[in-house]
Amino acid sequence: MYSRIQDRLKKFSDSQQNNALCGGLKGIEKESLRVNQQGNISQTTHPRGLGSALTNPYITTDYSEALLEFITPPFNKAEEVLSFMEDVHAYTYLQLSEELLWGTSMPCVVDGEMSIPIANYGHSNIGKMKHIYRIGLWHRYGRSMQAIAGIHFNYSLPETFWPIYQTLEENNQGLQDFISQSYMDMSRNLHRYGWLVLYLFGASPAICKSFVKGQKHSFEEFDEGTFYNRYATSLRMSDIGYKNDSQSDINISYNNLDDYVTRLLTATKTPLTSYQSLGVKDNAGQYKQLNANILQIENEYYSNVRPKQVADSGERPSEALKKRGIRYVELRSVDISPFDPAGINEQQLFFLEAFMVFCLLTDSPRMSQTDKICADKNVTLVASDGRKPGLLLDCNNSSIELKTWGLEICQAMEALCNLLDADNQQKPYSTALNSQIDKLQNADLTPSAMVLASMKKQNLPFFKFAMNQAEKHQTYFKQKKLSSEQLDFFKMASEQSIKDQTQLETSDSVNFDTFLSMYLA
User: What CA–CA distances, in Å, run from 465 to 41, 98, 126, 148, 207?
Assistant: First the structure.
């Protein structure tokens, strides 16, 4: 089943091009709720010391004014990614006074929908659009779902890899077309095998009861304040998380870039009756959503995997992809680890990089809508019951035990990890892989199991467990000393971002309605 990757690795070895796979660019985006000392979602505005959420390249907000998002630049080395993420946390804590950063994917106590303030981005047209888009998400899906936090892992192969790979593949496409198609091949396999990420790194098996207050559910009661699924890995990725029924019929294709972009754009231009009934504006002329289409904009499509291109200011993601092809792939299914101050650790980064390369090099047949539905069902099943003994998944229309399939994938990754380790005596990729094999052999070693075990051992509800971890992380980052150069770096980025936002607000040449019409066109 995985002979294709072994054949390709042999070609690299035979041509003495093993190093071509090493040194890919890695980056992470991590969301964190700001909470007060009581653990409630912060009602304060975005701290001015963090600059403009619209234009700061390293510190912004996601859905909520309280939901910070930290963004690393792309680095060649995993340790540089983690170091930058820790530095940005340390700088942020200098600006937070007594507030904390919530350390889990599932939010703290939610005191009703309106306790989640929608993010503001100033008075520029692009800032207004980002705010109204979030108002639309509120009306369409509610605010609670938008308060869930996660980590996105961004990855691209080295530029020098592609001509070598294309030659070994005897491919005659234009280089960028070959790159884009290869990344689409990777994306399909990330859907096929993405359930493994939830099993290995899922860390959200429990929630505060307030999160599903008034909703029907099938959770078990852990204690008077907590619901849980005893075998869950990632409730963030389950049916109570990033799932929208209105998007189930979009049928996005990952077979090639043209189909992907075309179907995504079609969804942004196709009205949905329920959203038409909601209306675009209220009686006072205030926007309730950007439009009444299935997707307001492309980013509304909730997917575990996104092929990405860096967009210019005011450029739509689909337009950037059409013009310049795929630059990197974003894996969006990683939970925040409550046991790591930055929400992720170096070993995870080594494994995720190897996993992304595995998904590129292993065979990737075209994916029908039925295939995609099957892959999505596997993800949902592992999210809610991934640690269940003997759990069966669907692999090529046959049932296979999760443990068996996971071990097959890891075995197929062994030669790749040895190659990525190159001359490094520490063997970080192989070590990371072996740790994941241990989790497949013993589910108690998974983060989700460790969360529940810690809660039981300390006799803590989810809220108090998560609050304790947040306080530990706060202490860690407040004790972390940044150099004067590091402080100046983040301070200058914050100050420049405020100037950039002001420039945007003073340079708008059309009113918002005209701007929005032009953007959506």
Answer: 16, 19, 39, 17, 11
Assess whether pLDDT exceeds 80 at residue 42: yes
Positions of E strands within 320-373? 328-334
CATH of the domain at 110: 3.30.590.20
Separation between Cα atoms, residue 122 and residue 91, nearest integer Å = 23
Residue 42 included in any domain:
yes
Domain count of the chain? 1
Residues 6+ apart with CB under 8 A from 356: 24, 153, 155, 186, 190, 329, 331
Percent of the chain with pLDDT over 70: 98
Task: Look at residues 429, 436, 406, 233 and name the one whose alpha carbon lies nearest to residue 349.
Answer: 429
Q: What is the pLDDT at residue 243?
A: 55
Least confident of 14-23, 217-226, 239-248: 239-248
**Beta-bridge partner residues of 60:** 69
The beta strands (E) that lie in 164-208 are given as 206-208
- pLDDT tens for each residue of 24-37: 999 999 999 999 99
Q: Give, to the nearest 10 degrees, the angle between helix 402-421 and helix 3-14.
A: 10
What mean pLDDT, rounded, does the chain reach? 96
Residue with tokens 């754009």: 265
In a domain, 7, yes or no: yes
Please provide residue 252's backbone torsions phi and psi, each rounded to the nearest 5 degrees.
-70, 130
Q: What pLDDT is attached to residue 213?
A: 85
307 domain-assigned: yes
Burial call 441-466: b when 16+ CB within 10 Å, e when fewer: eebeebbbbbbbeebeeeebbbbbbb
Q: Where does residue 194 rank: exposed (0-12), middle (13-18), buried (19+ CB within 10 A)?
A: buried
Instruction: Determine the Cα–Cα distance for residues 324 and 310; give it in Å rounded to an integer.
Output: 9
pLDDT > 90 fraction of the chain, expressed in percent and rounded: 92
Is 493 in contact with 51 (CB distance < 8 Å)? yes
Q: Is residue 521 in a domain?
A: no
Domain that holds residue 40: 3-515
Predicted TM-score of the model (pTM): 0.97
